[in-house]
């Protein structure tokens, strides 16, 4: 085997190993990627049941119901659509009606979102960027608000 052929074989083997490693990394990442959806996207049948994603919006006033064994039901809204959410576990201390929330979980066939993680906002003006963008698209965003914030009058 000539030197030129050996070099070509070495480069081809290294390329194949690199391609297999890249394929394994991308395959592992596919299971951990979670997309953000708004209640309007979920209600518009743009999300298939059984899909894992993050749902963000505001906790609808009057929708919070606590059940036995730390089970909680509430609704998440973006003022356009509302999605019912079921969660079992302890809620964050800052969780309350009318405030921003991001829940991660799975959409059940009946249209109920079964959350396994609930994250609450950190102060009274915080709004997840995706929710703020959804409010802008609906024309409910108050101009002059800082990025990531929304006026309370804009969401009521």
UniProtKB/TrEMBL annotation:
Topology term for the membrane: Single-pass type II membrane protein
Membrane side Extracellular: residue ranges: 29-156
Major site of localization recorded for this protein: membrane
Cytoplasmic compartment residues: 1-7
Entry keywords, A to Z: Cell membrane, Cytochrome c-type biogenesis, Heme, Iron, Membrane, Metal-binding, Signal-anchor, Transmembrane, Transmembrane helix
Pfam families tied to this protein: CcmE
SUPFAM superfamilies recorded: Heme chaperone CcmE
Positions with a binding annotation for heme: 122, 126
InterPro entries for this protein: CcmE, CcmE-like_sf, NA-bd_OB-fold
Extent of the signal sequence: none
Top-level taxon of the source organism: Bacteria
Locations listed in the record: Cell membrane; Membrane
Function: Heme chaperone required for the biogenesis of c-type cytochromes. Transiently binds heme delivered by CcmC and transfers the heme to apo-cytochromes in a process facilitated by CcmF and CcmH.
Family from the record: Belongs to the CcmE/CycJ family.
HAMAP family (alphabetical): CcmE (MF_01959)
Protein name per Swiss-Prot or TrEMBL: Cytochrome c-type biogenesis protein CcmE
Organism listed in the record: Methylobacterium crusticola
Source organism phylogeny: Bacteria, Pseudomonadati, Pseudomonadota, Alphaproteobacteria, Hyphomicrobiales
């Amino acid at each position: 085997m000539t030197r030129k052929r050996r070099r070509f074989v070495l480069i081809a083997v290294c390329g194949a190993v690199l391609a297999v490693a890249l394929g394994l990394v991308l395959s592992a990442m596919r299971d951990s990627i979670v997309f953000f959806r708004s209640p309007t996207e979920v209600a518009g049948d743009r999300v298939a049941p059984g899909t894992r994603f993050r749902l963000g919006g505001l906790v609808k006033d009057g929708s919070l119901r606590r059940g036995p064994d730390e089970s909680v039901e509430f609704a998440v809204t973006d003022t356009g659509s509302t999605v019912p959410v079921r969660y079992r576990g302890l809620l964050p201390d800052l969780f309350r009606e009318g405030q921003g929330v991001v829940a991660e979980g799975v959409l059940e066939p009946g249209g109920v979102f079964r959350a396994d993680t609930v994250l609450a906002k950190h102060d009274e003006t915080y709004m997840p960027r995706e929710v703020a963008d959804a409010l802008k698209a609906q024309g409910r965003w108050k101009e002059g608000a800082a990025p990531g914030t929304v006026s309370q009058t804009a969401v009521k």
